[in-house]
Amino acid sequence: MLLQKNPTGRKMAFNGTWKIDRNENYEKFMEAMGVNMMKRKLGAHDNLKITFQQDGKKFTLKESSNFRTIDIEFTLGVDFEYSLADGTELTGSWNLEGNKLVGTFTRKDNGKVLKANREIIGDELVQTYIYEGVEAKRIFKRA
């Protein structure tokens, strides 16, 4: 696999398009988040695809699923606003810790914290969520 390097010399392993392969404990996570049963069932089979483009500290993502397609831009360490597919609004930021993207987001409706990590393990992108003690993983393969 060919990896580009950003101006600081760090490898940009996230770049490219990733398609959901499987979930671990995702429905329980969505339940903890307050997502209703119908949306949980649909969300577990959303065919999510994420395209990453990193330019130094700036990331541009395109998330497309059965339900929506959105473009997201963020800069490492800078707070931004984001809405989940179920409409839950968050504010927070991503940081790079080693080769892992680490996000901390606060729900606008109840002030509770959602933690998220994205890392490349082998040939997979593993996205881990932790909310109210419930951990879930979404595992992606390169498209």
Q: Overview of this structure, please?
A:
- Helix content is 10%, strand content 54%.
- The chain has 2 helices and 10 strands.
- It has a 10-stranded antiparallel sheet with strand order 4-3-2-1-10-9-8-7-6-5.
- The N terminus is likely disordered.
Count of DSSP-assigned helices: 2
Task: Please estimate the helix content.
Answer: under 10%
Roughly what is the average pLDDT, rounded to an integer? Answer: 91
Strand order of the largest sheet: 4-3-2-1-10-9-8-7-6-5
The helix/strand order is EHHEEEEEEEEE
- Compute the number of strand runs: 10
Sketch the major β-sheet. Answer: 10 strands, antiparallel
Measured distance between first and last alpha carbons: 13 Å
Structural class, by secondary structure, is mainly beta
The coarse silhouette is globular
Low-confidence stretches: 1-10
SSE layout:
Elements: E1 16-24, H1 26-32, H2 37-43, E2 49-55, E3 58-64, E4 69-75, E5 80-83, E6 89-97, E7 100-107, E8 113-121, E9 124-131, E10 134-142
Antiparallel strand pairs: 1-2, 1-10, 2-3, 3-4, 5-6, 6-7, 7-8, 8-9, 9-10
At a glance:
The protein has 143 residues and is mainly beta. It is 10% helix and 54% strand.
Q: Could you name the key traits of this structure?
A:
143 residues; mainly beta; 2 helices; 10-stranded antiparallel sheet; single chain
